[in-house]
Amino acid sequence: MNPDVVLAIINIVMAGMFGAVIGSFTNVCIYRIPEHRTVVKGHSMCMTCGHELGALDLVPIFSWLCLGGKCRYCKTPISSRYIKIESLTALMYMLMAATHLDMFLDPVDPKATIFVFLELCALFIMINIVIVEMMIMKDTGSSMYRLSLALGIDFLVQLIARALPFLFDGFKSTYTENPVRSDLANYLGDWVTEILIGAVIAVVACGLAILFTSKPKQLPQYFKGEKLRALRTSDLFAIVVCASIGILPAAICAGVYLIARIAIGTGKKVKYLGIALAAGAAVGYLANAAIALI
Ligand SMILES: [Zn+2]
C-alpha cells in the first residue's frame, strides 16, 4: 500500500481516538458544570448506585458498547448521550483530519506546519467548548444569548489562530488551494466565508426540519429559552460539523440530515439521527474528494 495512504489512515484513526477522549471529557463537563463541581478532580461514579467507576468503565465508546449501555454494578441503563457525544466528537475529529490531510502529508515548511497544527487545535478545543455550552443550555433551559456568546468567542479564537502566522515573515500556507494567495485578507476571507456558509446551510436545514416537525405555536418558545426537545443534540452537531467540513460537503451533509430529520420525525427513532448526520458528512466528504479527483 502507498505509504501516504497508510500515513493518512493512521492520522485519521488517531484523530478519532483523540476525539473520543475529548468527547468523554466533554460529557464530564456537561454533567458537572451546571452542578458547580470541578471537572479536573474527583472520580466518576454511577448516578444510580453511586459505585465509583474503574478504568475499564471509562474507556470512551467501548465501555458503553461492552456493557450494553448498563452500569456494571447495578445494571441500570446509562444515558445514550455518553456514547452519542463520544462517537460524534470522534467522527468530527476524523473528518477534520481527513479534510486537512496535506498538513500531514506535505510538511514543506516545518514552521508553517506548526501554525496549521496550532490553528486546528484551537478549532478542536473551541468546538468542544461550544458543545458543552450548547448541551448545558439545552438542559438548564438558559437563554439563546449564551449560545451566541460561546459561538462568538469560538469564532474570535479561531480568527486569532488563523491570523497569527502572518505576523511572522516568510510564512506561506501549505494547504490553501492557491499557493500564490498569501495575502491575509484573501486568506481569512476564504476561510471565514467557508465557515459561515457551512454554518448557515446547516442552520437553514435545521430550521426547515423544526418547521416540518413542530406545531406552529411551539416556535416562539425557542427564543424564550424554554426547555424544548424539538431542538435536538444532533441539530447542534449538524451546525458544528457543517461549519468545519467545507461548503460542498456541508451542503450535501445538511441535505441528507434534513431528509432524515423530517422522515424520522419526533418518534422513538430520533436516536438514529446521529447516524444520519454521520452518513451525510461521509457522503459529502466522499463527493468532495471525488470531484477533486476529476
Ligand atoms: Zn450503578
Any overview of this molecule?
This protein has 294 residues and is mainly alpha-helical. The protein folds into three domains: 1-99, no CATH class; 105-182, no CATH class; 185-294, no CATH class. The protein is 65% helix and 0% strand. The chain has helices spanning 3-32, 62-66, 81-99, 101-105, 110-140, 144-163, 184-213, 233-244, 247-264, 273-293. α7 (184-213) runs antiparallel to α8. It is globular, with a radius of gyration of 20 Å. The two termini are 22 Å apart. 29% of the residues are buried. The structure holds zinc ion (ZN). Zinc ion binds at residues 46, 48-49, 51, 71, 73-74, 76.
Q: Which key terms come to mind for this protein?
A:
single chain; 294 residues; 3 domains; 10 helices; binds zinc ion
The number of helices is 10
| Low-confidence sequence ranges | 177-181
**Number of structural domains:** 3
Distinct ligand kinds:
zinc ion
Fraction of helical residues: 55-70%
- Mean pLDDT, to the nearest integer, reads 74
Number of strands: 0
Query: The biggest beta sheet, please?
Result: none
Order of helices and strands: HHHHHHHHHH
End-to-end Cα distance: 22 Å
The shape is globular
Task: Note the beta-strand portion.
Answer: under 5%
Q: Which radius of gyration do the C-alpha atoms yield?
A: 20 Å
Kindly name the structural category: mainly alpha
